[in-house]
């Protein structure tokens, strides 16, 4: 595992521009001159209007995409391929439907060559930690949405990733399950403390979870608008922290920055719709 030194940076995007070529062949600048730095063990939430480039930012860190300009480094190494030591969680489940919970969770270590007996024992431990003891032999279709998210968390955390990239991982869940999963995520994160980049549309969720909330501007040519340190003490009770005075103050402050971008994105999409209709 990477030895963390003071001042170390887990993730650094520096002057990043990302251009795509659209289906009509014209270039589209999704990100322009974007700087983002995440320290080892930091929980960073990224919020911004729809389509501004949140997922694109994650794909650059993961190595699935390359920047058109600027640099992306992970632990000081320029990203040049699929980044090792990175876990992912998306809105849709990435667990294998034909494998049991135990086989899904042990798949990572088995793939890395860990002996079967050790991988299975480790998987049983993680299954217990995510609250699924007794469900080892179930298949994903026999589980609720929240339980499948727990499997996905165990499947990631068993690999002790130094970086966890999460793209609206709980947005398909009902409100109560979502709040519960957020609380569980924080307890589990505390066990191995990876650096997290958590993309969400939900500002309450962002503040409740994160050490830092980063607000992106409306696209195109998205960049970082502002960065807010969240000084709420840990451990946090996710379902209750939103009633605290400091939480409400932070919410107002960050929403002020976010609202202008949401409004800008909305007017862009409505004027585009009007142009297309005329
Ligand atoms: N492969 C691609 N080719 C062309 N354009 C793309 C591609 N991937 C993303 N884009 C465009 O880049 C912009 C940013 O997309 P991205 O998915 O990163 O936004 P997002 O903030 O994650 O969106 P949402 O909040 O709706 O999930 C969008 O306008 C999208 O259409």
UniProtKB/TrEMBL annotation:
SUPFAM superfamilies reported for this sequence: P-loop containing nucleoside triphosphate hydrolases
Pfam families tied to this protein: ABC_tran
Record keyword Nucleotide-binding present: yes
Domain (ABC transporter): residue spans on this chain: 11-243
GO molecular function annotations of the record: ATP binding; ATP hydrolysis activity; glycosyltransferase activity
Keywords: ATP-binding, Glycosyltransferase, Nucleotide-binding, Transferase, Transport
InterPro entries the record matches: AAA+_ATPase, ABC_transporter-like_ATP-bd, ABC_transporter-like_CS, ABC_transporter_ATP-bind, P-loop_NTPase
Name of the protein described by the UniProt record: Mannosyltransferase
